[in-house]
Amino acid sequence: MKKMKNSLVLLGVIAAMGLTPGLAQEKAPSSPPPEKPEKASQQFKGKVDAVDAKAKALTVDGKLIYTSESTKFTKAGKAITLAQVMPGDQVHGTMHRTADGKTEALTLKVGKEEEAKEDKDKPVPE
Length: 126
Prior knowledge:
By secondary structure, the chain is an alpha+beta fold. It has a domain at about 40-110: CATH 2.40.50.320. Helices cover about 30% and strands about 35% of the residues. The chain is built from two helices and seven strands, in the order H-E-E-E-E-E-E-E-H. The chain has helices spanning about 1-25, 115-120; strands at about 40-50, 55-60, 65, 70-75, 80, 90-95, 105-110. Strands 3-2-1-6-7-4-5 form a seven-stranded mixed beta sheet, with no helix packed on it. Strand 4 and strand 5 form a beta hairpin. It is rod-shaped, with a radius of gyration of 30 Å. The model is unreliable at about 35-40 (pLDDT under 50).
């Protein structure tokens, strides 16, 4: 009888231990916490030192800035391509850090910032 009682207690302890991890897993979130969003975009401006069309990148005031298929290039309000950006051009735009740490341009406008603002302020001829 005593042996049977010890066996039942032991079986109860084993059963309780077996259920505990299951309960703990149910309480844990089913999905990992969301990753932090990428840093917000930042402004940049300066003179183009070099353009590397093969690497889809340019150097502006010594800083390497990559471009992508989604980068929007403009000059005097018209769409252009990276191939039309030349060393010596004054540029400005927005950029952000990619997941792998690269600086990537979201927008790149050729011309001084003041010129772009003046173009916006001009009335549209009718």
